[in-house]
Design brief:
The structure is a single chain. This protein is an alpha+beta fold and about 120 residues long. The chain has one domain: Alpha-Beta Plaits (2-Layer Sandwich), CATH 3.30.70.260. It contains five helices and four strands, in the order H-H-E-H-E-E-H-E-H. A four-stranded antiparallel beta sheet has the order 2-3-1-4, with helices on both faces. The protein is globular. This is ACT domain-containing protein.
Length: about 120
């Protein structure tokens, strides 16, 4: 399975309609999805969970898939918060590669991303 297929499958699982039986298995507050790409040698679930929980969020579902011959992992995190902006910044701060994210509210706009990139460039001078 390729990276794009994995992301597509996770997004479809997240956004598809459920039967009543499937719905009872899910958390009622599952609102966001983040997919990380992590080198296998750097993968530590406890660190990822610590980053999530330090931002007042909880992981409601987790999927892991090896890619690139097992050198990298795609980690899909379903979270119980609406706005993952702060969490995205935390992952960036700890050098995690966020390949995809979805949130119901407060999406980061391109303008905000540009301003953040400019700030980071200024701070690195």
């Amino acid at each position: 399975m390729s990276t794009k297929e994995f992301i597509k499958e996770q997004v479809e699982k997240f956004s598809s309609s459920f039967t009543p039986g499937q719905f009872t298995e899910l958390s009622r507050t599952e609102n966001s999805l983040i997919i990380l790409e992590v080198p296998l040698k750097d993968y530590t679930l406890t660190e990822i969970a610590r980053i999530v929980e330090s931002n007042n969020a909880h992981i409601t579902a987790l999927s892991v898939m090896p890619i690139s011959g097992g050198e990298f992992l795609l980690i899909s995190l379903k979270l119980d918060i609406d706005d993952v902006t702060v969490l995205l910044r935390s992952f960036e701060r700890f050098n995690y590669n966020v390949v995809y994210y979805f949130m119901k509210e407060g999406e980061v706009t391109d303008k905000q991303k540009e301003r953040l990139d400019e700030l980071m460039y200024y701070l690195e001078m």
